[in-house]
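Input chain follows. Return structure tokens only.
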Amino acid sequence: MTSCCAADAAVDQACRMLRLPTIRAEFSEIADTAAREQMSYRAFLAEMLMAECDDRARRRSERRIKAAGFPRDKSLRAFDFDANPGLDPAAIHTLATCEWVKKGLPLCLIGDSGTGKSHLLIALGTEAAMAGYRVRYTLATKLVNELVEAADDKILTKTIARYGRVDLLCIDELGYMELDRRGAELLFQVLTEREETNSVAIASNDSFGSWTKTFTDPRLCAAIVDRLTYGGNILETGTDSYRLARTRAQIDPHQRAG
């Protein structure tokens, strides 16, 4: 018993020194299992090392998801494809493999409010973070405001470079507000910095033909559309809000009861 306690203490101390928190936490349980199942020394060692590797991969994934700045948790598993029959689940799950992110291609999600485009933007961004890519989420207006402030503070180059380094930049709510020429030009600089090297994914409630309401300079609008569509994927989430339909379904029974 004494030698067993001494061995456990030695393992605990070594794990602290070597920074192996998972082995330290699970060593005793894995050792007991190994004894019951008569594992070989090699199998026991492999079991411990894989537990540490798996937990480190999980923690790295969690850090990347947190660093992305998503406003809420959204997953593909929770997406209601039945409520949006216009979307092909196979196409979405192909996007979830993140091959487009690997190739630096853009993705555009176009549809009315409540059709799931922001859900998909966050969910696909989360898949990319879990796959090991650096991801950043932002609202279009927030990004433009940050760029304007950076330009005023003489740190625009540094700010654009920071957005240029991430593997996937997710821009939500593009098209909700009109951007002045300066804001549009600054956004264009970010897109140009990332062109054909790192991916951009956007969600917009307007079709490309209506983007002149957001980008009032037609030539600049055309250039931005070109940056966001060349070689990429365009998915239309439709016009029927399933959020609104769900709300109505919840309200109607009460109204009928009244």
